[in-house]
Design a protein that fits this description.
Layout: H1 2-25, E1 33-39, H2 47-54, H3 57-60, E2 63-69, H4 73-82, E3 87-89, H5 93-100, E4 120-123, E5 139-141, H6 148-159, E6 166-168, H7 176-181, E7 187-190
Length: 197
C-alpha cells in the first residue's frame, strides 16, 4: 500500500511539473505589456538590467522589454519626450535641463541602477602610481558639455585641486573611444575598458 501511495504522489508531481512546463511553452506573449527603453550606452555597469532580461524576470512581471541603444542623454531625453520610448535610461542631468527650460511635459526620475559614476581615465602610456595631478597640462576627452560623465570628472579634478587640464567636451559620448584611438587627446574618460596588445 505504501508503494502505491508513493507512486501516486510521484505521478501527481510529474503531471504538475509537465503542466507547468507546457503552460510556459504555450504562454501567450501578446498578454505582455510592451515597454521600450532607450539606454544611453551598453555597459558592464548595467549588468543587473541585462541579467533581469536574460533570466526572464521582466516577463514574469508581465513585461516585454525592448532595449534601444540611444547614445547621449540628450538623445534619450528626446526619445522619451517624443513618445518613441516609454523609459529613458541616462544621467539625471537631462531631467534637470528639461525642467529648467519650463517645459510642462518634463521627465521624472524614478529609479537608479548605479550608485557611483563608472568612468575610467584611460591613458596612452602606462603611468606608475597615477594621480589626478598627472593630468595637468594634458588634454582629456571628457564627454559632452553638461553630461554626467564630464561633470563628475570636472568635480573630481576640482576636489583634488588639479588645474590646467584641457577637458575636450566637443566629442559625443559614443565617439569618445574612437576619437582617442584615432589620436585625439592624451587621456579619455570612458565607461568601458578595452584591452589591446
Amino acid at each position: 500500500m505504501k508503494k502505491i501511495i508513493i507512486s501516486l504522489i510521484a505521478l501527481l508531481i510529474i503531471i504538475v511539473i509537465t503542466a507547468i512546463c507546457i503552460s510556459k511553452v504555450n504562454k501567450d506573449d501578446s498578454k505582455l505589456t510592451k515597454v521600450k527603453v532607450a539606454e544611453v550606452t551598453h555597459s558592464m555597469f548595467y549588468t543587473p538590467q541585462y541579467l533581469a532580461d536574460a533570466l526572464g524576470y521582466f516577463e514574469e512581471e508581465g513585461l516585454e522589454v525592448e532595449f534601444i541603444l540611444t547614445p547621449g542623454a540628450d538623445k534619450v531625453t528626446s526619445a522619451v519626450l517624443s513618445g518613441d520610448v516609454e523609459i529613458g535610461f541616462c544621467g539625471s542631468e537631462a531631467t534637470i535641463y528639461v525642467y529648467n527650460q519650463g517645459e510642462k511635459d518634463y521627465l521624472v526620475n524614478f529609479a537608479g541602477l548605479t550608485k557611483r559614476d563608472g568612468s575610467f581615465i584611460v591613458s596612452r602610456e602606462k603611468i606608475e602610481d597615477f594621480t589626478l595631478k598627472d593630468l595637468e597640462g594634458k588634454t582629456v576627452i571628457g564627454g559632452r558639455q553638461g553630461g554626467m560623465p564630464v561633470m563628475t570628472f570636472e568635480w573630481a579634478l576640482k576636489e583634488a585641486g588639479v588645474k590646467n587640464v584641457n577637458v575636450d567636451t566637443s566629442i559625443e559620448f559614443a565617439s569618445m573611444s574612437g576619437a582617442f584611438i584615432g589620436g585625439t587627446g592624451d587621456f579619455v574618460n570612458l565607461f568601458e575598458l578595452s584591452v589591446r596588445e
